[in-house]
Amino acid sequence: MDKRTLGTSGLEVSAIGLGCMSMTGGYSDRPDRREMISLIRTAVERGVTFFDTAEIYGPYANEELVGEALAPYRGKVVIATKFGWDIDPIERKPGGGVDSRPEVIKRVVEGSLERLGVEAIDLYYQHRVDPEVPIEDVAGAVKELIEAGKVKHFGMSEAAAGTIRRAHAVQPVTAVQSEYSLWWRRPEREVLAACEELGIGFVPYSPLGKGFLTGTITAATTFDAGNDIRSTIPRFAPEALRHNEAVVGLLAGIAQRKGVTPGQIALAWLLARKPWIVPIPGTRKLHRLEENIGSADVELTAGELAEIEEAASKIEVAGGRYNEAAERMTNL
Question: Which residues contact 89 (CB under 8 A, 6 or more apart)?
């Protein structure tokens, strides 16, 4: 697979990464651990070198999974993880809020290092901006971790352009991770321009709209209220899904002409936006992994990109991407 460099940092990764969150739950009951380890290792064999996890996924279980799966590939892959949530380390349960106090960052990094089985974290994101802690203090704490050899690169997630600029002035930011796809384009307002100006890479999570842009979800699809986060998201309510089918229809038409899938067109569109954009679609299925990897070989012509842009401009996506409480925790 082709490689891309995240901004001007020199951090080289595969053009398509792998988001690992769902491998320990989030969209269903927890999948079989051995199968997920096998899937991660297959991804490496297929050319994926960029893997995304976080301490809150589980909590902790996802980092443990990724650490075990990638143990044979130390030094050959890039592992990104995230800090910033209030987590009870004994009960392994989230406390319900964020916590990016410098003393907490310096403590929790030790747990991530141990679970991942690495001496230094390749890319360490602040998962959500903490309104109670100046971002300069957060960046300063990560800078100290970099100087101590425990972290290699600093990242931010769901941060506004102004916040990114303030952090970058203290410790250069290598990558910003935020939701971005054809049905969530808010980063285009200010964040992408800031990244380009400052030489920061951009990592879209949920680049397939939490599965919607693959064309496999319809208004009749139901989501397990106990295990699937989409059951809490307004965009996945039946009426919103019915309205939003127009987005998939746009992708499907081009996909049919090119002999690929709607999901591959969605990922190829992101790759065509900027050479420093690296999407991290998640999956628990081998055929989806191979499909996502294959999108790196799909080239969209200038005419096709213009066609997508023109059609998309006429579609107003219905429903929020998060419920109100979750959206308030973003900094956009």
Answer: 111
**Tens digits of per-residue pLDDT, 144-179?**
999 999 999 999 999 999 999 999 999 999 999 999
Strand, coil or helix: what is 224?
coil
CA separation for the pair 147, 330 (Å, rounded): 28
- 92 sits in the region (left: phi over 0; alpha: psi -120 to 50; else beta) called left
What gap in Å lies between CA 286 and CA 279, rounded to an integer? 18
Q: What's the burial of 259, exposed, middle or buried (CB within 10 Å: 0-12/13-18/19+)?
A: exposed
Where in the chain are the domains? 3-215+274-298
pLDDT tens for residues 283-292?
999 999 999 9
Which residue numbers are catalytic? 57
16 within 8 A of 48, measured Cβ to Cβ? yes
Q: What superfamily does domain 3-215+274-298 belong to in CATH?
A: NADP-dependent oxidoreductase domain (3.20.20.100)
